[in-house]
Amino acid sequence: MHNDPAQLPTEVLDAATCWDLLHGVSVGHLAVLVDGYPEVFPVNYKVDQHSVVFRTGEGTKLRAAGGPLAVALEADGHDDSKAWSVLVKGKAVILEPTQELLAGAALTLFPWQAGEKDHFVRIVPTSVTGRRFVITSPLTWWNHVRETAARDTA
Q: Using only C-alpha atoms, what is the Rg of the chain?
């Protein structure tokens, strides 16, 4: 029998809160399918008109994102007491670098890695979901490890 502390419920976030949180960070993880297997790439992004825009160069990420399959972008963050995670699922569209795009999201969209990043990709969401939860003290997990180790050696 465990004397676990009460677990606080995970907060399911509405779409507006998800977008607010996405505005506050600039790095996410893009998930695509490549030859039938998932691949995940870190990307710098900007929120633009309830969609997500990132820059990339030629290569696997661009080919997979520009294909017919859905993609996902996950971003997360935390403060001293709570953590959150937001998932954007949808279709990626390769954009033409128009004046409107360059004056908007692209104006401040700077990838961390050097090189030619001349392609802009917009994720048009079909789903935006998120959750937020209280961060559990590391001591909670240490107690579980200690109890498991004691049972295993008994």
A: 20
